[in-house]
Design brief:
By secondary structure, the chain is of the alpha+beta class. The chain has five helices and six strands. Strands 5-4-3-6 form a four-stranded mixed beta sheet. Strands 1-2 form a two-stranded antiparallel ribbon.
């Protein structure tokens, strides 16, 4: 008989089927005629080119090779009331959108209050996605 933890893990995996199988770089997506990514469930997610260009405008030259899209907004059981973003370029984009970016304090991981999620998702609806994490 499956344990409670096993059931929870399977359920979390099921609700994360909307995540991409691979996250391409912004540069790769900008070079595609029809920017899209294949999801874990086999379907495809299409990106708005205008949104990809907006992301490019937030970065310094060459950083488009480091930014993985979609940007994953992690909802964790460990940080209730917060969401997490990982990756130097990804954190930079999110902090520029939120108006909290500090050039002297570049981070590889950021933790933000969950009430800021709507602002991020409204600004980047096709280039961000949620991931549910159990820790």
């Amino acid at each position: 008989m499956p344990r409670g933890e096993d059931i929870l893990r399977r359920e979390v995996a099921r609700i994360n089927l909307h995540l991409p199988a691979l996250r391409p770089t912004l540069r790769t997506l900008l070079e595609e005629g029809e920017p899209k990514v294949r999801l874990r469930d086999g379907s495809y997610h299409h990106f708005r080119r205008s949104e990809l260009n907006y992301l490019l405008s937030l970065l310094d030259p060459g950083e488009d090779e480091n930014l993985r899209v979609p940007i994953v907004l992690e909802i964790s059981t460990l940080y209730r009331g917060y969401f997490r973003v990982r990756g130097r370029a990804e954190v930079k984009v999110i902090e520029k959108i939120l108006g909290t970016y500090d050039i002297l304090d570049e981070k590889t991981e950021g933790l933000y209050p969950r009430y800021l999620l709507p602002k991020v998702r409204k600004t980047l609806p096709t280039t961000t996605t949620y991931a549910f994490i159990t820790e």
